[in-house]
Amino acid sequence: MHSAPPSAVSPLRFVVFAAGVTAIGGFLFGYDTAVINGANSYLKAYMHLNPAQEGFAGASAILGCIPGAMFAGHLSDRFGRRKTLFLCAVLYALSGILSALPRTFDEFLVARFIGGLGIGASSMICPVHIAEISPEKWRGRLGTLFQLGIVMGIFLTLLTNKMVQGFGDELWNTTQGWRWMLGAGAVPAVAFFGLLFAVPESPRWLAQRGRRDEALAILTSAGGAGHAALEMTAIEDAMQDEDGGLSELFTPGVLRPLLVAVMLMAFSQFCGINAILYYSSKIFEAAGGGKNAAFMSSMWVGLINVGFTFVAIGLVDKAGRRPLLLIGTALQTLSLGLIGWMFHTEQNGLPLLLCVVCFIGAFAMAMGPIGWLFCSEVFPNKVRGRAMSLAALTVWVSCYIVTQTFPMLNDSPAVGPALTFWIYALVSFASFLFVLTMVPETKGRTLEEIGASWSKR
Fold first, then answer.
1. What one-character DSSP code corresponds to residue 49?
2. CA 240 to CA 261: how far, in whole Å?
3. Residues spanned by the domain of 433
4. pTM score
5. What does the DSSP assignment read for 144-163?
6. What is the pLDDT of residues 260-269, one digit of tens each?
C-alpha cells in the first residue's frame, strides 16, 4: 500500500487535511470508550449480569487498549504509520459490528476487546503521525486535533445514546437499543478507512526506510521547498546518531524524555478525569439530581470538554505547552478540592455542576491535549513509535486502575466521594509540581531539535 501522493494544495490545507483525517482515530477512540456509559444498564438487564460482570463489560475495551498500545509502536516502526492507521480503522469497524450482534456475554467481551485494540493502537499512532507530518509552527494546534477528536467522540455518544433511547420503550432498549448504540461506531470507522487513502505516510518514517524522494515530496507539500530541505537535513543528521534498537530506549537521550512522558500520562489519568467522564451521570444522581438532571449535567460536561479543547488549539502555539499545563493543573487542584467539599457538606445542584465544569475545562485546555502532544514530540525519530507505545500503555493501565477503583472508593463507607475527590486533588497538585520542575517547553522547535536537547540536558 503506497503512500498517497502529495497534492498541489497549499501547505496549510495539506497538513490540516492530513491531521484532520488522522484525528478521526481520536474521534473513534472517544466514541468507543464512552458509548458503554449509556448502553451498560440495558446490557445488564438483557444479559442478566451480576455486578462483577457489569464492571468487566465496562472494562473489557480498556483491557484491549493495553496490548493495542504495546504492539502498535513496533508495528508502526516496522510497517509505517499509515498502515497502522488502516489497521486501527479495521479494528474499530469490526468491533462496532460485532458489538451489535453478540448472542452471549463472552461474544460481547471479545467484540469490545477488539475495539480496545483499536483504541490502544490509535492512542499511540495518531498523535505520532500528526506530529511527524506537521511543521513546527503549526504542530501544537494540529496535534491538539487528536484530543478534539476524542472529546467530540465522547460528546457524540451522549447525543447518540439519547437519540437511540427515544426510538423505543424500555423493553426495546433492553433487547435492541444498546445494540444500535454500540454498532453506530462502525459508520465513522468505515469513513476513516476510506479517507486514509488520501493521507500521506510520515515523511520521517519514509526517510528512515531510505525512501528519501517520497519523504522530501511530502515535506515540500507540508511546508514548501525551503522547509523541506532544512527538515530533510535535520532528519538525516539525527539518523546518524540513532541505532533504532530497543536498547536505545535506555540511553540518556531517550530514557529521560520517556520517564517524563510516562509520568505526565500517569498524572493525566490519576487526576480522576475518566471517573467523571465515565460516571458523570452516577455522580450527579448521587448528589441529589434525578436521571434527567444527571443527563443534562453530563451534556454540559461534554460541551465544556469540547469548548475548552478549542482554547488549547488557540493558545498552545502562542502561550506554549508549559504555561497551559501549569494553569490547567492548578485549576484542576482547586476544582477537585471544591468537589470533595461539596460532597462533604452534602451540597448539590448548580454549585457542584460548576465545580465539575471548571475541572473539565481545566483538563480540556491543558493536560488532556498537551499530554498526547508532548509525548508525540519528545522522542527521537527511530524509536518514537516504541517510546510512544510505552506512554500510551501508561495511559491505559492508569485508566483501568481509575475506572475499577472509583466505584469502590466512591461507594465505600470508609472513603466516600468527598475523600475520593480530595485524593484526585492531591494528584493534580503533584502534577503541577512535576510540570513546574521537570517538563520543558517544546513550542516552536523541530522534532529533531527537541530530541537532541535531551542529550544536552
1. -
2. 24
3. 242-457
4. 0.88
5. THHHHHHHHHHHHHHHHHHH
6. 999 999 999 9
Q: Which CA distances in Å does 249 have to 242, 260, 390? A: 11, 13, 10
Looking at 271-320, list the stretches that DSSP marks H as alpha helix, in order from N- to C-terminal side.
273-286, 291-315
* Angstrom distance (rounded) from CA 85 to CA 203: 15
Do the Cβ atoms of 92 and 191 come closer than 8 Å? no
Q: Are 381 and 116 in contact (CB under 8 A)?
A: no
User: Residues 6 or more apart from 345 whose CB is under 8 A from it?
Assistant: none
Low-confidence spans in the chain with pLDDT less than 50:
none
Q: How far apart are CA 99 and CA 29, in angstroms?
A: 15
Please report the pLDDT score of residue 345 as a whole number: 87
Half-sphere exposure of 159 (CA within 13 A, CB side): 10
Q: What is the CA radius of gyration of the chain?
A: 22
Q: Which CATH number characterizes residue 150's domain? A: 1.20.1250.20
How many domains, in total, are found in the chain?
A: 2
Do 290 and 183 lie in one domain? The reply is no
Beta carbons of 227 and 12 less than 8 angstroms apart = no
The strand ranges marked E within 158-286 are none
Cα separation of 57 and 448, whole Å? 42
Cell of 199: 493521507
